[in-house]
Amino acid sequence: MALLGLIIIAIIIWVYRQQTTGELSALVTVLEQENHQIKERNIKLTAQNEALTTDNINRQQALAIQKATNNELLQQLNELQDNALEIDKELSFYQNITQGSATSKLQVRELKITADTEQADQFSYRLVISQGKKITKPLNGKLSVSLTGNIDKQSKTIKLNEHQLKLRHVQVFNGQINLANDMEPKSIKITLIQNKKTTLSKTIDWTVSTSPTQLER
User: Beta strand pairing status for 213-215 and 197-205?
Assistant: First the structure.
């Protein structure tokens, strides 16, 4: 009887193990299938993420290119507007010269003084002179340009240049200014000499750029 009981117990245990092993095998199979599906989904999601990342980078690069292009176009537009203003200014300037007014005055249209970018005591100037509408004959003579300033709190005048004047409507003069001995410039004097006589003169305050001024005859 004892042996029979052992045999029955062994059979029960074997049957239980067979059932348990079968269930575990089925569970393992299901888990393996789910793991495979998860891996496949992960691969798809990774590919989608890489595609989105690449698309985002391309969009950022395109945006940067567009921004740079817009800045360049804006700069070109500003340059064109500045050029248009300069052209309008020049046109008005020459219209005023050619059309003139009912004046017989000799005019200093422009005296522009520019500082040298490398040497603090060096300057250049551009002098534009025109004649009034009532003056029909060319003006000849010498145009003297002198500088007045202070050196050690004392006023001193030095001659800069002497230009030959052969004026018919408009004439442009260019020259250099060298400030020596720590001179503090105060004014520029323009003198017209005809037949060894001073026929007119004008003193203009020292500035970087002067507005049109008239020389009284």
Answer: unpaired
